[in-house]
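Final report, Chapter 2: Outcomes

The project's central promise was a pipeline that accepts a single protein chain and returns its three-dimensional structure in a standardized token representation, suitable for archiving and comparison. That pipeline is now operational. To close this chapter, we reproduce one record exactly as it appears in the project archive, with the input sequence first and the structure output second.
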Amino acid sequence: MTGATGAGRGGASPYNPGENEILEWIRGGTLGHALQREEGSMRPVLIYLYRSDMNENCCAANFERALFRYQPTVRAFARFACYKIESRTVKEKGLLEQFDLRSDKPALLLLDAEGGLLHKQQLCVDPKKFLRVISSSVRLSDLRVRLKSSQLAQRTKAQKLVDEDRFNDALRIYERLGRKPEALGGHVERLVTNDLNEIEEIAHNLLAEAGQMHEERKLLQSYRLYREIEKEFSRLAEASMQAKRHARALSGELRRLGVGLR
């Protein structure tokens, strides 16, 4: 089975790149679209990259007529989101540079849901032996999924603390998550970054509110002081009027007694 080619030997029909329909392929788009679609999911991803002019390429025929038809590998790939993508655009080639791929060969990319590389293959394979590669890739992907689940649980806890206005406790959790940024999956890292930006915005708004309240408190205190002064002046004015009345009454009484006032 590993010797499948595009030459149509032994009466086989000529190989047509992209012909395999046995796997449950998700068609269309680019590598970037596929990774964006699977971001945040919990399943590994199979990307099969080929070109329409690879009809004479033995590795492309090996993948589609041997690996993708061998029932044990077909069952193993059922765990994956399988994308069949014809790589031909400049944009696509730019995205492929990160995987250091040969342009004259098809490529199998086994990725986790964050786009992290689990395995890449560009040469012909023995489907039976490749089963071990699939199994180890699934185990590594599951390990990363468990790590991501733990990180998401920590983030949920931090969000709850933020809702309770316990910002210091929430920030301690985010600090622990950020100690090893390389361990954060891309999806979790973006969520944590967004959370921290929101906390920063909340803090900014709270500071603005606190400043406004401080100004309002100063105005209120000034108003209260003014009212107290006003009341004191009112009491002094009343006392002054009473003193004047007493002075007039005393002056009249003294005149009645014949006591002159100078």
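Archive annotation: The helical segments are 31-38, 58-67, 71-77, 90-96, 127-163, 167-178, 186-256.
This record, like all others produced under the grant, will remain available to the consortium after the project formally closes.
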